Amino acid sequence: MKKVLLIGRSEAGKTTLAQRLLGEEPRYHKTQAVTLVGPIIDTPGEYCQRAEYAKALALYAYEADVVALVVSADEPFMLFSPGITSLVNREVVGVVTGVDKPGARPDLCDSWLRLCGCRRLFHMDALHGEGVGELLDYLGADGSPARPPDETKIRRSPAEPIKTAKKTPKKVPKQTEK
Length: 178
What we know:
globular; two-stranded antiparallel ribbon; Rossmann fold; 7-stranded mixed sheet; alpha/beta
């Protein structure tokens, strides 16, 4: 599966989406730091809401194969600027969450995401799992949950590189002198 970076404001549904992509039932969890679980990089909403953290998102994009701009369908305005996808040299898709909410305007969100530069858009209700399969197919997950069994969650600050931790370290054979 392609590694995906989830970017969006606080409460846009990034963590719920990440949990669904991993085959987990959604539970509330406020993301406090950039979190890597398998092929999913979940970011706190504050990273795109505060200028001093926003630059870190461009750097984290280099760790991903795909960047997903996540927008809730009931957003009153668009947080991302038109043409923002040009800041990264990765494929950028738009994800509209909460399409079942009262007052949802996925059509308006689609317009905003297209202005940002997203060519591929996904609509979903991640809370109930609707539409998640289409994104999994797009990311190449073959219908199975995205979490490899040997990888574990790690949290990083913007200054630290993202690494995948293994539960059991690989044994390196000793080199013998000739």
